[in-house]
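W.,

You were right to be curious about this one. When I first looked at the sequence I had no strong expectations either way, so I just let the prediction run and decided to look at it fresh. Below is the sequence, 456 residues in total, followed by the output.
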Amino acid sequence: MATQRQRIWGWWFYDWASQPYNTLLLTFIFGPYFAEIARGYFMGTGMEEEAAKAAAQSYWGLWYAIFSLIIALMAPILGAVAQGTGRRLVWVWAFSILYVIGAWSLWNLAPGAELGTLRWAAILFGIGLIGMEFTAIFTNALMPTLSDGDNMGKISGSGFAFGYLGGLIALAIMLSFFVLDGDSELTRAGIDPTMFGLDTEAREETRIVGPLSAVWYLVFMIPFALWVKEPKGGAGSLHIGAALASLWETLKSLRFRHSLAAYLGSTLAYSDALTGIYAFGGVYASNVLGWDIGQIGVFGILGGVTAMIASWLGGKLDSRFGPKPVIVSAIIVLIVVCLVIVGMERDSLWGIAMDPASSTPDIIFYICGGLIGAAGGPLQAASRTMVLRHTTPDRATEAFGLFALSGKVTSFIAPLLITIATAVTQNARLGISPIVALFIIGLILLIWVNPKGEQV
């Protein structure tokens, strides 16, 4: 029988194991690599470079929007079904299969890919994304079984900090052993990736990020498997009709649960915006600043360090002051950062001239990356504890299904708006601007959220 400390550590190891899908695949390595390959394809069709950059960003955004919509539609239904059966871990393991298959398959996207190969890479990435998002729903629903409510802020914040540390180490491994340093034939640690049998001409040193993420997940889910167990009692049979009826009753009850309704509306906006930053941050750096994968990776390490430290500190502030002040502060920081990003090019910042050959634009974006990590980590951790303030342990899975719904039901909107804005302006920088509006909407809706939730 695992002790309480072991159960908490096992639960934290899920964050450690799954973080590379966000860090390595979505944001800092595979996302920019996909944009680079797609940009090459579109330029091969005769597009000018800027138009090809915009087309690559739009293509990535379109597929990300499609799978976000699928996740949004399925999340609350699965949450209700799992709530009815009283089972969570079986769903964690089922969707872990999709995570591993999706991540491993990204190895197949090679330079010179045609549109069909790009499409399959995007689809397989989306399959893994579904696995990552749904394992998170059912893992989060186990939170109430770990400790009492007074410690939830610390547990959630420390879990995110531990997860960011895992992502940071995975990213450091990629940059040290595999990703080439610019035009050099060596990595930033002076290592030749060909010593591992990798063909750098075929970009295998970058493509290895998919299998690495899959193996990382399999290895570090072992502590989770050993120490995290299904709560005793409450197991039932699968009745989809009853589960959907229960979900419908919960949705109807939002008319009378004003704080929860406002909070779900707020997360609908700010989670979408944060996802947009993560999904397009690396693509932006590649398109607007001309960064290579190695530079983007260093940017990711900086963001990971600040996210790890801030998540841990945010968890302590959450336990002392509650999650709402943490959420509000984080959103304000992210609004300011996004305004800087939208107004920045290599030669100017909101009309203020900069030397494009200098390191000033890079330094500014590195600072932005640090602030994104410092705000994004605590925002996600505090959001998780705010959900618990609006539910009870026996309804946690359904609540996190709704939370995933609010975070995903319009998660296709940010990629879609970015895709449209990019296509209309033919400018990858201006295409990011809808994110600012989403953060502002989320901040306004928090006015009607009770800091204590529905707890008395």
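Here's what jumped out at me. The first strand starts at residue 344 and ends at 345. And, maybe more interesting for your project: The chain has a mean pLDDT of 82.

Coffee later to discuss?

I.
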